[in-house]
Amino acid sequence: MTHRTESEKGAFRHPDTLLSAWLVATGVVLAAFMDAVASTALSIGRIDMLGDIYATPDELAMVDIAFIAAKLTAFLVAPLLVTAARPTACLRAGVVMLLLGCAAMTLSVDLVWICVFRVVQGLAGGTILVAGQTLLFFRFPSRHQPTVQAVFAVGAVMAPTTITPALQGWLVDHFSWDWIFLANVPLGIAALVLLAADGNRTYWRATTLPVVEVTVLGISTALLTYVLLQGSRFNWSDDMGITGLSTIGVAAAGLVVVREARFRSGSLQAVAPFADPDFRFGFLVSLVAGFALSGSTYLIPAFALNVLDFTATAAGVLLLPSGAMLALGLLFSGLLIEKAGVHPIALVPFGVLLFSGAMWLLSGSTSGSGTPDLTPALLLRGSGLGLLFVALTLVTLRGLAADILPFGIGLFNLGKQAGGLMGTALLQTYIDHQNALNRTMLSTHLVRGDPALDQRLRATANILTSNGADILAAPKIAFPLLQRSLERQASTISFDEAFFALVLLFAVAAPCLIGAKQLFSRKVLRRNQTG
After folding, report:
1. DSSP code string of 236-275
2. According to the 3-state scheme, what is the secondary structure of 184-238?
3. Is 169 exposed, middle or buried (0-12, 13-18, 19+ CB in 10 A)?
4. DSSP secondary structure, 355-398, as one string
């Protein structure tokens, strides 16, 4: 793969070429939206699928693990394919694979075949994101990249966290889980039609696929994904199985890293982007940003469903205002960087402050909160993430050479996905632990003979009696009602503490990231001086 030539850059001055470039960009966004639908499908359609395919929750969890592990592996393998053939060819292949994998999901209820189809979807989704973003960097000149990457982020970042959960909740409530995957069929056809505007820009360049490394990498990602998704259930290190799988997974990943660092020829070449200091900084920030994005995306619907008693559709719709502000934030930051010449790094602190402010507002939620109470915080959250992700993408990837760019994109997406997995897993564990602690502390007030409790029981019994309950049965019903109220209050406090934990995350991570940025800059300056 070579750098873009001046004639290629100049081609964008022609209106028809610029129009075709934006048609291709629209196709890339639709392809990214397809991946968003496939990525979030089981989070909404899980319960319906359990009844149709006669699977246990553990068996269905393995299907999800297979999808995520395949996608993580694809982030590191797809760049090799992009360097062997043009990004357009890889993108089209990924769209076809995902389209067929989603359609096939609705034709069989056999668990083995469903697992195979999810692996295909994961490999296709990872290829789509890597090839699609690479294509956008190659098809548009550098001056247009802020806006282009903002548009791409609408499909890659906003859709899986806001639009698709609401859409899938509606499909599940009104139809069945099959329609979640069938929705990708028209999207895939439209994406292929739009990508035809790129013409037949294909070539094949001989490349070697490191089968051993890919196999070891696949094993590592599968084991670590299982640990992150199931570790909370088994109380992490208290279970010997989780400890053993963690050790094997980390060791396997370490072997790949060591081999990559020492033997570049014929390997995955995944460590090459780390030579760039901006990429090293951006990769670290992507871990934190992925943690915050996926962590908050998990917390908000879970709080709405478990504490506020929202329906699946209502919980999905709850994130739509945040998604709208996220889209506006993405486009605003892209235009601000492109038109006003603002340096991308300058927007990162504003994004962090807005997101932290949103989590701080959510940490004051109560069991009586409703959509109007949560909306201001959700709008702030969307705005903050919008400012953060475009700036982070440009800081991390814009300085990479053309032959290294696909590998950088793969690692950047891997960082966001890994950070998201860690965020969801750790916050779920934190809520479980805090819920047990808060329940224990509050239960000390539910002791028979306590004057305050007796007064509350009498008041509750009087309310029940006034609403038609039997005068003798009302006192017996009052105590279980107070116990349920206590459980709900304990859950509310736990979620509030989890929201505040995300505020503390940035309070701790921000100084560390600033220090890392300065350290990387000093090394570059020292290298230039000695050179």
Report:
1. GGGSHHHHHHHHHHHHHHHHHHHHHHH--TTS--TTGGGG
2. HHHHHHHHHHHHHHHCCCCCECCCCCCHHHHHHHHHHHHHHHHHHHHCCCCCHHH
3. buried
4. HHHHHHHHTT--TT--HHHHHHHHHHHHHHHHHHHHHHHHHHHT
Other beta carbons less than 10 A from residue 280's beta carbon: 18
Cβ-in-10-Å burial (0-12, 13-18, 19+) of 131 comes to buried
Residue type, 458: R
CB 180 within 8 A of CB 363: no
- From 131, 130, 117, 118, select the one nearest 69 (Cα to Cα): 118
Token pair 């592990």 is found at: 69
Q: Report the distance separating Cα 386 and Cα 323, nearest Å.
A: 9
**φ, ψ (nearest 5 deg) of residue 452:** -65, -40
Looking at residue 472, the DSSP 8-state letter turns out to be T
Which of 241-245, 358-362, 397-401, 431-435 is predicted most confidently? 358-362
Let me know: does 166 contact 319? Beta carbons within 8 Å.
yes
Other beta carbons within 10 Å of 177 = 24
User: For the ranges 75-84, 153-162, 242-251, 281-290, which has the lowest average pLDDT?
Assistant: 153-162
- What digits encode the pLDDT tens for the residues 445-475? 666 666 666 666 667 666 767 766 666 666 6
pLDDT band at 45 (very low <50, low <70, confident <90, very high): low
- From CA 78, how far away is CA 83, in angstroms rounded? 9
Nearest one of 8, 281, 82 to 289, comparing CA atoms: 281
Instruction: Write down the residue that tokens 């028809």 correspond to.
Output: 16
Give, as one character, the DSSP assignment of residue 2: -
User: Are 388 and 348 a contacting pair, CB within 8 Å?
Assistant: yes
- Amino acid symbol at 134: T
Sign (positive or negative) of CA dihedral 60, 61, 63, 68? positive
Region 294-304: mean pLDDT is 87
CB count, 10 Å around CB of 55?
18
Do 237 and 194 touch, CB atoms closer than 8 A?
A: no
- In three-state secondary structure terms, 444 is coil
State the first-to-last Cα distance of the chain, in angstroms, to the nearest integer: 28
Residue 204's DSSP bridge partners are 85
C-beta of residue 101 within 8 angstroms of C-beta of residue 121: yes
Number of H helices, E strands in the chain: 19, 0
Pair 57, 110: CB distance under 8 Å: no
Token pair belonging to 49? 């699928």
Residue 469: partners with Cβ closer than 8 Å, 6 or more residues away = 477
pTM score: 0.84
